[in-house]
Amino acid sequence: MAACTLGVGILAACGGGSASSSDGKVYFLNTKPEIVDQLQELASAYAKETGIKVDIETAASGTSNQTFTSELSKADGPSMFNIAGFDQYAKFKKYLEQVQDSEAYKLLTDEGKSYAFKDGDEAYSIPYAAEWYGIIHNKKIIRDYCAKSHAVIKSVDDITDYQIMKAVMDSIQEHKADLGLNGAVSTPGLDASDNYRFSAHMTRIPMSYELKDDGVKFTLDITGKYMGNYKDSWDIMVKDNPTESSMISSVTYEDSTAEFSSGSGVSIDLAGKHLRINHGIGGV
Predict the structure, then answer these.
(1) Are 269 and 185 in contact (CB under 8 A)?
(2) Does residue 265 carry a pLDDT above 70?
(3) How far apart are CA 284 and CA 273, in angstroms?
(4) For residues 203 and 210, what is the distance between their CA atoms, to the nearest angstrom?
């Protein structure tokens, strides 16, 4: 069975598993619960226009690989599914059809096409989401900190490299009581709902710089050239957050978000997943 993929940023075309008017059905396996309402709206509009039924099923959080493996093995498996990252593309590519000749792919800009998963000139997915993540901070807390005599910076603009940022976080952690905080940084939760920020999103940064140095977009020869920087960032998050190290495995995404959003919580979130522009189908 061939199918289409929607990736994090991607929509790919369908093959043998795709729907036609004679089939009368599209089965879309979704892994993004935050866009279910938009997908249902799109499915209803498509069904009204074509008469083809669209079933949308959403995999439980953290189960996409298992769900894909199970569902794609079925004779009536999904016509379309979304994937997050090159690893899933590589694993499920055998189920995909090329999309570079599709009308949807032709509508993409050159930049959009560059984000499609490809094998040479053959594209197997279509980008459909834009997502950013990085370091975010509570402006008021940082301003209050900068006004203190113990502050190591005068404004957030003084944070220009990792060593300065580390000094700021350590200083905030040392003086957290004076600032009315529980910690300098939000807890790097390792519960299944939160650990993807650190196992996937943060690791892409050192990986991207290694690939950039090598002048490639993908390689099996990973050296971990910049992973020491990742370890430094992880270590300081573990040291300067409000949670005991032995307890971070139970901290959820909601817990971490609450820490950052509360006025007396923390001042910095290194993983920054809360800063999000999400999913071009309908948006969030």
Answers:
(1) yes
(2) no
(3) 14
(4) 11
* pLDDT, position 276: 29
Residue with tokens 């794609």: 72
Burial of 149 (0-12, 13-18, 19+ CB in 10 A): exposed
Nearest C-alpha neighbor of 89 from the set 165, 11, 164: 11
With a threshold of 0.90, does the pTM exceed it?
Answer: no
Q: How confident is the model at residue 12 (pLDDT cuts 50, 70, 90)?
A: very low
Confidence of residue 145 (pLDDT cuts 50, 70, 90): very high
Question: 247-267 in b/e burial notation, b at 16+ Cβ within 10 A?
Answer: ebeebbbebbbebbeeeebbb
